[in-house]
Amino acid sequence: METVSENRCFGGVQGVYSHASTATGCGMTFGLFLPEEARDGPVPVLWYLSGLTCTHENAMVKAGAQGWAAEQGIALVFPDTSPRGDDVADDEAYDLGKGAGFYVNATEKPWAPHFRMWDYVAEELPQLIASEFAIDAERQAITGHSMGGHGALTLAMNLPGQYRSVSAFAPISHPTASDWGRKQLRAYLGADESNWARHDSTLLMRESGFDGPVLVDTGTDDQFIDFLKPEALAGAVAERRQEASLRLQRGYDHSYFFVSSFMEDHIAFHAEALYA
Amino acid sequence: METVSENRCFGGVQGVYSHASTATGCGMTFGLFLPEEARDGPVPVLWYLSGLTCTHENAMVKAGAQGWAAEQGIALVFPDTSPRGDDVADDEAYDLGKGAGFYVNATEKPWAPHFRMWDYVAEELPQLIASEFAIDAERQAITGHSMGGHGALTLAMNLPGQYRSVSAFAPISHPTASDWGRKQLRAYLGADESNWARHDSTLLMRESGFDGPVLVDTGTDDQFIDFLKPEALAGAVAERRQEASLRLQRGYDHSYFFVSSFMEDHIAFHAEALYA
Protein backbone atom coordinates (compact mmCIF):
# COMPACT_ATOMS: atom_id res chain seq x y z
CA MET A 1 0.00 0.00 0.00
CA GLU A 2 1.29 3.46 -0.86
CA THR A 3 0.43 6.82 0.61
CA VAL A 4 -0.72 9.22 -2.10
CA SER A 5 -1.38 12.12 0.26
CA GLU A 6 -2.15 12.91 3.87
CA ASN A 7 -3.69 16.21 4.99
CA ARG A 8 -4.51 17.24 8.49
CA CYS A 9 -8.27 17.76 8.73
CA PHE A 10 -10.52 18.53 11.72
CA GLY A 11 -7.85 17.33 14.13
CA GLY A 12 -7.43 14.04 12.28
CA VAL A 13 -5.91 13.00 8.97
CA GLN A 14 -7.52 12.78 5.54
CA GLY A 15 -5.40 10.27 3.66
CA VAL A 16 -5.42 8.89 0.13
CA TYR A 17 -3.84 5.49 -0.43
CA SER A 18 -3.29 3.19 -3.40
CA HIS A 19 -2.74 -0.54 -3.51
CA ALA A 20 -2.74 -3.51 -5.88
CA SER A 21 -6.15 -5.12 -5.51
CA THR A 22 -6.59 -8.88 -5.72
CA ALA A 23 -10.35 -8.57 -6.15
CA THR A 24 -10.27 -6.20 -9.11
CA GLY A 25 -6.88 -7.19 -10.50
CA CYS A 26 -5.73 -3.62 -10.85
CA GLY A 27 -4.42 -0.70 -8.85
CA MET A 28 -7.07 0.89 -6.63
CA THR A 29 -7.13 4.19 -4.76
CA PHE A 30 -9.22 5.06 -1.71
CA GLY A 31 -9.66 7.90 0.75
CA LEU A 32 -9.60 7.34 4.50
CA PHE A 33 -10.32 9.91 7.19
CA LEU A 34 -9.02 9.01 10.63
CA PRO A 35 -10.20 11.12 13.55
CA GLU A 36 -7.82 12.22 16.28
CA GLU A 37 -9.00 9.35 18.50
CA ALA A 38 -7.40 6.81 16.14
CA ARG A 39 -4.02 7.74 17.60
CA ASP A 40 -5.07 6.06 20.84
CA GLY A 41 -6.66 2.92 19.42
CA PRO A 42 -9.17 1.47 16.96
CA VAL A 43 -12.19 3.59 16.06
CA PRO A 44 -15.52 2.71 14.41
CA VAL A 45 -15.76 3.22 10.67
CA LEU A 46 -18.41 4.52 8.28
CA TRP A 47 -18.19 3.48 4.63
CA TYR A 48 -19.24 6.04 2.02
CA LEU A 49 -19.94 4.60 -1.44
CA SER A 50 -20.08 7.12 -4.27
CA GLY A 51 -22.27 7.43 -7.33
CA LEU A 52 -21.89 7.26 -11.09
CA THR A 53 -18.81 8.96 -12.58
CA CYS A 54 -17.22 9.49 -9.16
CA THR A 55 -13.80 8.42 -7.92
CA HIS A 56 -12.69 8.15 -4.28
CA GLU A 57 -12.28 11.91 -4.34
CA ASN A 58 -15.71 13.49 -4.91
CA ALA A 59 -17.29 12.83 -1.53
CA MET A 60 -13.96 13.29 0.22
CA VAL A 61 -13.84 16.93 -0.88
CA LYS A 62 -17.52 17.81 -1.33
CA ALA A 63 -19.69 15.93 1.19
CA GLY A 64 -18.56 17.84 4.28
CA ALA A 65 -18.38 14.60 6.26
CA GLN A 66 -15.07 14.89 8.07
CA GLY A 67 -16.15 17.54 10.57
CA TRP A 68 -19.05 15.47 11.82
CA ALA A 69 -16.99 12.27 11.80
CA ALA A 70 -14.33 14.04 13.85
CA GLU A 71 -16.95 15.15 16.33
CA GLN A 72 -18.12 11.54 16.71
CA GLY A 73 -14.67 9.92 16.63
CA ILE A 74 -15.53 7.87 13.56
CA ALA A 75 -13.33 6.97 10.58
CA LEU A 76 -14.60 7.39 7.01
CA VAL A 77 -13.67 5.25 3.99
CA PHE A 78 -14.19 6.53 0.46
CA PRO A 79 -13.62 3.70 -2.07
CA ASP A 80 -13.48 4.23 -5.80
CA THR A 81 -16.56 3.25 -7.86
CA SER A 82 -14.90 0.86 -10.33
CA PRO A 83 -11.63 -0.75 -11.35
CA ARG A 84 -9.23 1.57 -13.17
CA GLY A 85 -6.41 1.42 -15.67
CA ASP A 86 -5.70 0.94 -19.37
CA ASP A 87 -6.29 -2.82 -19.16
CA VAL A 88 -9.78 -2.37 -17.75
CA ALA A 89 -12.79 -2.60 -20.08
CA ASP A 90 -14.88 0.53 -20.49
CA ASP A 91 -17.88 1.90 -22.34
CA GLU A 92 -18.55 5.27 -23.89
CA ALA A 93 -21.61 5.78 -21.72
CA TYR A 94 -21.11 7.48 -18.35
CA ASP A 95 -23.23 4.83 -16.65
CA LEU A 96 -21.39 1.66 -17.64
CA GLY A 97 -17.78 0.58 -17.15
CA LYS A 98 -15.32 2.86 -15.40
CA GLY A 99 -16.95 5.03 -12.77
CA ALA A 100 -20.01 2.78 -12.83
CA GLY A 101 -19.12 -0.51 -11.14
CA PHE A 102 -22.54 -0.80 -9.46
CA TYR A 103 -21.00 -2.78 -6.57
CA VAL A 104 -21.39 -6.20 -8.19
CA ASN A 105 -19.07 -9.04 -9.24
CA ALA A 106 -19.39 -9.13 -13.02
CA THR A 107 -19.70 -12.57 -14.62
CA GLU A 108 -19.95 -11.45 -18.25
CA LYS A 109 -17.45 -10.40 -20.89
CA PRO A 110 -15.73 -7.99 -21.13
CA TRP A 111 -16.35 -6.99 -17.52
CA ALA A 112 -15.69 -10.17 -15.54
CA PRO A 113 -11.89 -9.90 -15.17
CA HIS A 114 -11.86 -6.60 -13.22
CA PHE A 115 -15.38 -5.48 -12.29
CA ARG A 116 -15.54 -7.18 -8.91
CA MET A 117 -16.44 -4.19 -6.76
CA TRP A 118 -18.64 -6.33 -4.49
CA ASP A 119 -15.69 -8.42 -3.33
CA TYR A 120 -13.51 -5.34 -3.17
CA VAL A 121 -15.81 -3.34 -0.91
CA ALA A 122 -17.25 -6.26 1.09
CA GLU A 123 -14.04 -8.17 1.74
CA GLU A 124 -10.71 -6.94 0.46
CA LEU A 125 -10.78 -3.29 1.45
CA PRO A 126 -12.25 -3.93 4.95
CA GLN A 127 -9.43 -6.39 5.63
CA LEU A 128 -6.83 -3.99 4.31
CA ILE A 129 -7.91 -0.99 6.36
CA ALA A 130 -8.37 -3.07 9.52
CA SER A 131 -4.83 -4.39 9.18
CA GLU A 132 -3.14 -1.12 8.19
CA PHE A 133 -5.03 1.45 10.29
CA ALA A 134 -6.59 1.83 13.74
CA ILE A 135 -10.02 0.64 12.56
CA ASP A 136 -12.35 -1.46 14.72
CA ALA A 137 -13.72 -4.06 12.27
CA GLU A 138 -16.43 -4.98 14.77
CA ARG A 139 -17.99 -1.54 14.47
CA GLN A 140 -18.78 -0.75 10.84
CA ALA A 141 -21.63 1.16 9.22
CA ILE A 142 -22.31 2.06 5.61
CA THR A 143 -23.81 4.86 3.54
CA GLY A 144 -23.66 6.11 -0.02
CA HIS A 145 -25.09 8.39 -2.67
CA SER A 146 -27.14 7.36 -5.72
CA MET A 147 -25.39 4.26 -7.18
CA GLY A 148 -23.46 4.25 -3.90
CA GLY A 149 -26.69 4.29 -1.92
CA HIS A 150 -27.69 1.22 -3.90
CA GLY A 151 -24.34 -0.33 -2.97
CA ALA A 152 -24.73 0.51 0.71
CA LEU A 153 -28.25 -0.92 0.98
CA THR A 154 -27.50 -4.11 -0.94
CA LEU A 155 -24.26 -4.79 0.92
CA ALA A 156 -25.95 -4.21 4.26
CA MET A 157 -28.86 -6.53 3.55
CA ASN A 158 -26.73 -9.28 1.98
CA LEU A 159 -24.13 -9.34 4.75
CA PRO A 160 -25.97 -9.58 8.08
CA GLY A 161 -23.75 -8.65 10.99
CA GLN A 162 -21.18 -6.75 8.93
CA TYR A 163 -22.74 -3.29 9.33
CA ARG A 164 -24.60 -2.04 12.39
CA SER A 165 -26.55 0.59 10.47
CA VAL A 166 -27.16 1.61 6.88
CA SER A 167 -28.16 4.91 5.32
CA ALA A 168 -28.32 6.36 1.84
CA PHE A 169 -28.65 9.66 0.00
CA ALA A 170 -30.92 9.44 -3.06
CA PRO A 171 -30.19 5.73 -3.60
CA ILE A 172 -31.02 3.77 -6.73
CA SER A 173 -33.62 1.72 -4.90
CA HIS A 174 -35.07 -0.67 -7.45
CA PRO A 175 -32.50 -1.17 -10.23
CA THR A 176 -34.15 -4.27 -11.70
CA ALA A 177 -37.03 -2.00 -12.71
CA SER A 178 -35.06 1.13 -13.68
CA ASP A 179 -33.00 2.47 -16.56
CA TRP A 180 -30.37 2.99 -13.89
CA GLY A 181 -29.97 -0.71 -13.29
CA ARG A 182 -31.40 -2.98 -15.96
CA LYS A 183 -28.78 -2.04 -18.52
CA GLN A 184 -25.91 -2.45 -16.07
CA LEU A 185 -27.13 -5.64 -14.37
CA ARG A 186 -27.64 -7.22 -17.79
CA ALA A 187 -24.16 -6.17 -18.92
CA TYR A 188 -22.36 -7.25 -15.76
CA LEU A 189 -24.46 -10.27 -14.67
CA GLY A 190 -26.08 -11.52 -17.87
CA ALA A 191 -29.64 -11.86 -19.08
CA ASP A 192 -30.89 -14.20 -16.32
CA GLU A 193 -32.73 -11.76 -14.07
CA SER A 194 -32.73 -14.19 -11.15
CA ASN A 195 -29.07 -13.26 -10.71
CA TRP A 196 -30.00 -9.60 -10.32
CA ALA A 197 -32.23 -9.93 -7.27
CA ARG A 198 -29.53 -9.73 -4.62
CA HIS A 199 -28.51 -6.39 -6.11
CA ASP A 200 -31.91 -4.74 -5.74
CA SER A 201 -32.62 -3.19 -2.36
CA THR A 202 -36.38 -3.21 -2.83
CA LEU A 203 -36.36 -6.95 -3.54
CA LEU A 204 -33.93 -7.56 -0.67
CA MET A 205 -36.13 -5.55 1.67
CA ARG A 206 -39.12 -7.69 0.71
CA GLU A 207 -37.06 -10.85 1.13
CA SER A 208 -35.11 -10.29 4.30
CA GLY A 209 -34.77 -6.66 5.39
CA PHE A 210 -31.94 -5.37 7.57
CA ASP A 211 -31.20 -6.23 11.17
CA GLY A 212 -30.62 -2.66 12.32
CA PRO A 213 -31.73 0.90 11.67
CA VAL A 214 -32.11 2.34 8.16
CA LEU A 215 -32.08 6.02 7.14
CA VAL A 216 -32.75 7.22 3.58
CA ASP A 217 -32.99 10.82 2.34
CA THR A 218 -34.14 11.81 -1.13
CA GLY A 219 -34.86 15.30 -2.47
CA THR A 220 -38.35 16.06 -3.75
CA ASP A 221 -36.74 17.93 -6.67
CA ASP A 222 -34.21 15.21 -7.48
CA GLN A 223 -33.85 15.35 -11.26
CA PHE A 224 -33.26 11.59 -11.37
CA ILE A 225 -36.04 10.56 -9.01
CA ASP A 226 -37.80 8.47 -11.68
CA PHE A 227 -34.65 6.35 -11.93
CA LEU A 228 -34.27 6.08 -8.16
CA LYS A 229 -37.78 4.84 -7.35
CA PRO A 230 -37.87 5.71 -3.64
CA GLU A 231 -41.55 4.70 -3.65
CA ALA A 232 -40.61 1.08 -4.35
CA LEU A 233 -38.26 0.88 -1.38
CA ALA A 234 -40.73 2.78 0.80
CA GLY A 235 -43.43 0.24 0.02
CA ALA A 236 -41.15 -2.67 0.82
CA VAL A 237 -39.98 -1.06 4.07
CA ALA A 238 -43.55 -0.51 5.20
CA GLU A 239 -44.64 -4.05 4.26
CA ARG A 240 -41.76 -5.55 6.22
CA ARG A 241 -42.23 -3.24 9.23
CA GLN A 242 -38.49 -2.53 8.89
CA GLU A 243 -37.04 -0.09 11.45
CA ALA A 244 -36.36 2.85 9.15
CA SER A 245 -36.61 6.58 8.49
CA LEU A 246 -37.38 7.38 4.86
CA ARG A 247 -37.38 11.12 4.31
CA LEU A 248 -38.33 13.17 1.26
CA GLN A 249 -36.55 16.50 1.61
CA ARG A 250 -38.45 19.37 0.09
CA GLY A 251 -36.75 21.24 -2.74
CA TYR A 252 -33.45 19.33 -2.72
CA ASP A 253 -31.95 17.84 -5.88
CA HIS A 254 -29.39 15.09 -6.58
CA SER A 255 -26.25 17.16 -6.00
CA TYR A 256 -23.65 17.21 -3.26
CA PHE A 257 -25.35 20.37 -1.97
CA PHE A 258 -28.13 17.98 -0.98
CA VAL A 259 -25.75 15.36 0.42
CA SER A 260 -23.79 17.83 2.52
CA SER A 261 -27.00 19.39 3.87
CA PHE A 262 -27.96 16.14 5.59
CA MET A 263 -24.55 14.69 6.37
CA GLU A 264 -24.72 15.75 10.01
CA ASP A 265 -27.93 13.74 10.45
CA HIS A 266 -26.51 10.65 8.79
CA ILE A 267 -23.31 10.61 10.80
CA ALA A 268 -25.21 11.17 14.05
CA PHE A 269 -27.52 8.29 13.05
CA HIS A 270 -24.59 5.93 12.47
CA ALA A 271 -22.79 7.08 15.61
CA GLU A 272 -25.76 6.07 17.70
CA ALA A 273 -25.60 2.54 16.26
CA LEU A 274 -21.81 2.31 16.37
CA TYR A 275 -21.59 3.38 20.01
CA ALA A 276 -24.67 1.46 21.19
CA MET B 1 -27.62 38.77 -14.92
CA GLU B 2 -28.26 35.12 -15.72
CA THR B 3 -28.84 32.18 -13.44
CA VAL B 4 -26.37 29.40 -14.18
CA SER B 5 -27.66 27.06 -11.48
CA GLU B 6 -29.52 27.04 -8.20
CA ASN B 7 -29.37 24.14 -5.74
CA ARG B 8 -31.15 23.87 -2.45
CA CYS B 9 -28.54 23.68 0.28
CA PHE B 10 -28.90 23.67 4.09
CA GLY B 11 -32.39 25.11 3.86
CA GLY B 12 -31.25 27.96 1.61
CA VAL B 13 -30.11 28.21 -2.00
CA GLN B 14 -26.62 27.89 -3.47
CA GLY B 15 -26.77 29.82 -6.72
CA VAL B 16 -24.31 30.49 -9.53
CA TYR B 17 -24.88 33.59 -11.64
CA SER B 18 -23.15 35.23 -14.60
CA HIS B 19 -23.21 38.82 -15.76
CA ALA B 20 -21.43 41.27 -18.05
CA SER B 21 -18.99 43.16 -15.84
CA THR B 22 -18.24 46.83 -16.40
CA ALA B 23 -15.17 46.71 -14.17
CA THR B 24 -13.45 43.82 -15.92
CA GLY B 25 -15.00 44.27 -19.36
CA CYS B 26 -15.90 40.62 -19.68
CA GLY B 27 -18.43 38.07 -18.54
CA MET B 28 -18.03 37.12 -14.88
CA THR B 29 -19.45 34.27 -12.84
CA PHE B 30 -19.97 34.17 -9.09
CA GLY B 31 -21.49 31.90 -6.46
CA LEU B 32 -23.96 33.16 -3.88
CA PHE B 33 -25.39 31.23 -0.96
CA LEU B 34 -28.58 32.68 0.50
CA PRO B 35 -29.79 31.25 3.80
CA GLU B 36 -33.46 30.53 4.41
CA GLU B 37 -33.82 33.86 6.27
CA ALA B 38 -33.26 35.76 3.01
CA ARG B 39 -36.82 34.89 2.00
CA ASP B 40 -38.05 37.25 4.71
CA GLY B 41 -35.69 40.17 4.14
CA PRO B 42 -32.09 41.29 3.73
CA VAL B 43 -29.38 39.26 5.48
CA PRO B 44 -25.75 40.05 6.32
CA VAL B 45 -23.13 38.85 3.87
CA LEU B 46 -19.67 37.30 4.14
CA TRP B 47 -17.34 37.59 1.13
CA TYR B 48 -15.03 34.67 0.44
CA LEU B 49 -12.12 35.45 -1.89
CA SER B 50 -10.33 32.45 -3.37
CA GLY B 51 -6.71 31.70 -4.08
CA LEU B 52 -4.48 31.11 -7.09
CA THR B 53 -5.92 28.93 -9.88
CA CYS B 54 -9.42 28.96 -8.36
CA THR B 55 -12.71 30.01 -9.93
CA HIS B 56 -15.91 30.89 -8.06
CA GLU B 57 -16.48 27.17 -7.66
CA ASN B 58 -13.67 25.77 -5.50
CA ALA B 59 -14.66 27.18 -2.13
CA MET B 60 -18.33 26.83 -2.97
CA VAL B 61 -17.97 23.05 -3.15
CA LYS B 62 -15.00 22.38 -0.86
CA ALA B 63 -14.89 24.86 2.02
CA GLY B 64 -17.91 23.51 3.90
CA ALA B 65 -19.11 27.05 4.59
CA GLN B 66 -22.81 26.86 3.76
CA GLY B 67 -23.85 24.83 6.80
CA TRP B 68 -22.34 27.33 9.22
CA ALA B 69 -23.64 30.30 7.24
CA ALA B 70 -27.13 28.76 7.29
CA GLU B 71 -26.87 28.36 11.06
CA GLN B 72 -25.99 32.04 11.40
CA GLY B 73 -28.40 33.35 8.76
CA ILE B 74 -25.57 34.84 6.71
CA ALA B 75 -25.18 34.98 2.92
CA LEU B 76 -21.89 33.97 1.25
CA VAL B 77 -20.44 35.40 -1.96
CA PHE B 78 -17.81 33.51 -3.93
CA PRO B 79 -16.35 35.75 -6.69
CA ASP B 80 -14.03 34.49 -9.39
CA THR B 81 -10.30 35.27 -9.05
CA SER B 82 -9.73 37.01 -12.39
CA PRO B 83 -11.37 38.16 -15.61
CA ARG B 84 -12.14 35.35 -18.06
CA GLY B 85 -12.59 34.81 -21.76
CA ASP B 86 -10.65 34.48 -24.99
CA ASP B 87 -10.06 38.26 -25.18
CA VAL B 88 -8.41 38.35 -21.77
CA ALA B 89 -4.61 38.34 -21.52
CA ASP B 90 -3.01 35.35 -19.85
CA ASP B 91 0.34 33.87 -18.94
CA GLU B 92 1.59 30.30 -18.97
CA ALA B 93 2.42 30.46 -15.27
CA TYR B 94 -0.30 29.41 -12.82
CA ASP B 95 0.37 32.50 -10.70
CA LEU B 96 -0.11 35.27 -13.27
CA GLY B 97 -3.06 36.16 -15.48
CA LYS B 98 -6.22 34.10 -15.40
CA GLY B 99 -6.91 32.62 -12.00
CA ALA B 100 -4.41 35.03 -10.47
CA GLY B 101 -5.93 38.51 -10.45
CA PHE B 102 -4.46 39.35 -7.03
CA TYR B 103 -7.38 41.73 -6.33
CA VAL B 104 -5.76 44.80 -7.91
CA ASN B 105 -6.58 47.20 -10.74
CA ALA B 106 -3.85 46.58 -13.29
CA THR B 107 -2.29 49.64 -14.91
CA GLU B 108 0.20 47.87 -17.18
CA LYS B 109 0.00 46.15 -20.54
CA PRO B 110 -1.31 43.62 -21.39
CA TRP B 111 -3.31 43.40 -18.16
CA ALA B 112 -4.87 46.84 -17.78
CA PRO B 113 -7.98 46.38 -19.95
CA HIS B 114 -9.53 43.54 -17.93
CA PHE B 115 -7.59 42.86 -14.74
CA ARG B 116 -9.59 45.19 -12.47
CA MET B 117 -10.55 42.75 -9.76
CA TRP B 118 -10.25 45.45 -7.09
CA ASP B 119 -13.07 47.50 -8.59
CA TYR B 120 -15.03 44.36 -9.31
CA VAL B 121 -14.94 43.02 -5.76
CA ALA B 122 -14.98 46.37 -3.93
CA GLU B 123 -17.67 48.12 -5.96
CA GLU B 124 -19.39 46.43 -8.85
CA LEU B 125 -20.28 43.06 -7.37
CA PRO B 126 -21.44 44.46 -4.00
CA GLN B 127 -23.81 46.80 -5.82
CA LEU B 128 -25.07 44.00 -8.04
CA ILE B 129 -25.84 41.55 -5.26
CA ALA B 130 -27.42 44.23 -3.07
CA SER B 131 -29.74 45.20 -5.91
CA GLU B 132 -30.59 41.68 -7.11
CA PHE B 133 -30.75 39.72 -3.84
CA ALA B 134 -31.89 40.11 -0.24
CA ILE B 135 -28.48 41.32 0.95
CA ASP B 136 -28.00 43.95 3.65
CA ALA B 137 -25.18 46.11 2.29
CA GLU B 138 -24.72 47.72 5.70
CA ARG B 139 -23.60 44.40 7.18
CA GLN B 140 -20.69 42.97 5.22
CA ALA B 141 -17.64 41.00 6.31
CA ILE B 142 -14.81 39.46 4.31
CA THR B 143 -12.53 36.45 4.35
CA GLY B 144 -10.38 34.52 1.90
CA HIS B 145 -7.73 31.87 1.36
CA SER B 146 -4.12 32.43 0.29
CA MET B 147 -4.23 35.07 -2.51
CA GLY B 148 -7.84 35.57 -1.42
CA GLY B 149 -6.72 36.16 2.16
CA HIS B 150 -4.44 38.85 0.79
CA GLY B 151 -7.44 40.31 -1.03
CA ALA B 152 -9.63 40.22 2.05
CA LEU B 153 -7.08 41.91 4.30
CA THR B 154 -6.13 44.61 1.79
CA LEU B 155 -9.73 45.42 0.87
CA ALA B 156 -10.73 45.61 4.53
CA MET B 157 -7.90 47.95 5.49
CA ASN B 158 -8.25 50.18 2.42
CA LEU B 159 -12.02 50.58 2.69
CA PRO B 160 -12.81 51.58 6.28
CA GLY B 161 -16.48 51.10 7.09
CA GLN B 162 -17.18 48.65 4.27
CA TYR B 163 -16.54 45.46 6.27
CA ARG B 164 -17.27 44.95 9.94
CA SER B 165 -14.74 42.16 10.35
CA VAL B 166 -11.98 40.52 8.34
CA SER B 167 -10.45 37.06 8.51
CA ALA B 168 -8.14 34.98 6.38
CA PHE B 169 -6.94 31.42 5.89
CA ALA B 170 -3.22 31.20 5.14
CA PRO B 171 -3.12 34.66 3.54
CA ILE B 172 -0.28 36.02 1.44
CA SER B 173 0.60 38.57 4.09
CA HIS B 174 3.56 40.52 2.74
CA PRO B 175 3.51 40.28 -1.06
CA THR B 176 5.94 43.14 -1.64
CA ALA B 177 8.58 40.92 -0.04
CA SER B 178 7.54 37.55 -1.45
CA ASP B 179 7.79 35.52 -4.65
CA TRP B 180 3.99 35.34 -4.35
CA GLY B 181 3.60 39.06 -4.88
CA ARG B 182 6.60 40.85 -6.30
CA LYS B 183 6.27 39.26 -9.74
CA GLN B 184 2.54 39.92 -9.93
CA LEU B 185 2.56 43.45 -8.48
CA ARG B 186 5.33 44.39 -10.93
CA ALA B 187 3.39 42.88 -13.86
CA TYR B 188 0.04 44.41 -12.97
CA LEU B 189 1.12 47.73 -11.36
CA GLY B 190 4.53 48.45 -12.86
CA ALA B 191 8.01 48.82 -11.44
CA ASP B 192 7.31 51.73 -9.07
CA GLU B 193 7.01 49.93 -5.76
CA SER B 194 5.26 52.86 -4.10
CA ASN B 195 2.15 51.76 -6.02
CA TRP B 196 2.34 48.34 -4.41
CA ALA B 197 2.02 49.39 -0.79
CA ARG B 198 -1.75 49.54 -0.60
CA HIS B 199 -1.81 45.90 -1.72
CA ASP B 200 0.37 44.61 1.11
CA SER B 201 -1.45 43.80 4.33
CA THR B 202 1.69 43.99 6.47
CA LEU B 203 2.41 47.51 5.22
CA LEU B 204 -1.25 48.50 5.60
CA MET B 205 -1.31 47.15 9.13
CA ARG B 206 1.74 49.25 9.99
CA GLU B 207 0.16 52.29 8.33
CA SER B 208 -3.45 52.22 9.45
CA GLY B 209 -4.70 48.85 10.71
CA PHE B 210 -8.33 47.81 10.67
CA ASP B 211 -11.21 49.30 12.62
CA GLY B 212 -12.67 46.01 13.77
CA PRO B 213 -11.68 42.46 14.70
CA VAL B 214 -9.19 40.41 12.70
CA LEU B 215 -8.80 36.61 12.64
CA VAL B 216 -6.05 34.80 10.73
CA ASP B 217 -5.33 31.06 10.69
CA THR B 218 -2.24 29.49 9.12
CA GLY B 219 -1.07 25.87 9.29
CA THR B 220 2.32 25.13 10.82
CA ASP B 221 2.89 22.60 8.00
CA ASP B 222 1.74 24.92 5.22
CA GLN B 223 3.96 24.02 2.27
CA PHE B 224 3.88 27.65 1.07
CA ILE B 225 4.46 29.31 4.42
CA ASP B 226 7.69 30.96 3.24
CA PHE B 227 5.67 32.75 0.55
CA LEU B 228 2.91 33.72 2.98
CA LYS B 229 5.08 35.36 5.66
CA PRO B 230 2.64 35.23 8.58
CA GLU B 231 5.48 36.48 10.80
CA ALA B 232 5.53 39.82 8.97
CA LEU B 233 1.82 40.42 9.55
CA ALA B 234 2.08 39.17 13.14
CA GLY B 235 4.81 41.69 13.87
CA ALA B 236 2.80 44.54 12.38
CA VAL B 237 -0.35 43.51 14.29
CA ALA B 238 1.54 43.45 17.57
CA GLU B 239 3.24 46.81 16.92
CA ARG B 240 -0.11 48.45 16.15
CA ARG B 241 -1.95 46.81 19.09
CA GLN B 242 -4.54 45.77 16.51
CA GLU B 243 -7.50 43.78 17.88
CA ALA B 244 -6.70 40.41 16.32
CA SER B 245 -6.35 36.67 16.73
CA LEU B 246 -3.47 35.22 14.74
CA ARG B 247 -3.35 31.48 15.08
CA LEU B 248 -0.80 28.95 13.89
CA GLN B 249 -2.61 25.61 13.62
CA ARG B 250 -0.40 22.65 14.32
CA GLY B 251 0.03 20.14 11.49
CA TYR B 252 -2.29 21.78 8.96
CA ASP B 253 -1.21 22.51 5.39
CA HIS B 254 -2.44 24.88 2.65
CA SER B 255 -5.33 22.72 1.40
CA TYR B 256 -9.08 23.03 1.67
CA PHE B 257 -8.90 20.31 4.33
CA PHE B 258 -7.31 23.05 6.43
CA VAL B 259 -9.82 25.71 5.38
CA SER B 260 -12.85 23.54 6.09
CA SER B 261 -11.46 22.52 9.48
CA PHE B 262 -11.64 26.11 10.73
CA MET B 263 -14.59 27.43 8.75
CA GLU B 264 -16.95 27.11 11.72
CA ASP B 265 -14.69 29.39 13.78
CA HIS B 266 -14.42 32.00 11.03
CA ILE B 267 -18.13 32.18 10.37
CA ALA B 268 -18.90 32.42 14.09
CA PHE B 269 -16.31 35.20 14.35
CA HIS B 270 -17.92 37.18 11.52
CA ALA B 271 -21.44 36.52 12.83
CA GLU B 272 -20.49 38.14 16.12
CA ALA B 273 -19.42 41.30 14.29
CA LEU B 274 -22.31 41.27 11.82
CA TYR B 275 -24.96 40.91 14.53
CA ALA B 276 -23.31 43.24 17.06
Give a structural overview.
- Two copies of one chain form a homodimer.
- By secondary structure, chain A is an alpha/beta fold.
- Chain A is 33% helix and 23% strand.
- The first copy, chain A, is built from nine helices and nine strands.
- In chain A, the strands form two sheets. A six-stranded mixed sheet of chain A has the order 1-2-3-5-4-6, with helices on both faces. Chain A has a three-stranded parallel sheet with strand order 7-8-9, with helices on both faces.
- In chain A, helix 6 packs parallel to helix 8 (230-240).
- Chain A binds chain B through residues 7-11, 14, 61-62, 64, 66-67, 219, 221, 251-253, 255-258, 260-261, 264, and chain B through 7-11, 14, 61-62, 64, 66-67, 219, 221, 251-253, 255-258, 260-261, 264.
Shape of chain A: globular
* Assembly state (oligomeric): homodimer
Class by helix and strand content of chain A?
alpha/beta
How much of the sequence of chain A is in beta strands?
Answer: 15-25%
Main-sheet strand order of chain A equals: 1-2-3-5-4-6
Q: Please give the most extensive interface between any two protein chains, plus how many residues each contributes.
A: A-B, 23 and 23 residues
| SSE ordering of chain A | EEEEHHEHEHEHHEHHEH
Main beta-sheet annotation of chain A: 6 strands, mixed
Q: Report how far apart the termini of chain A are.
A: 33 Å
Tally of individual helices of chain A: 9
Q: What is the helix fraction of residues of chain A, given as a range?
A: 25-40%
Give the beta-strand count of chain A: 9
Name the poorly predicted regions of chain A.
none
What is the mean pLDDT of chain A? 97
| CA gyration radius of chain A, whole angstroms | 17 Å
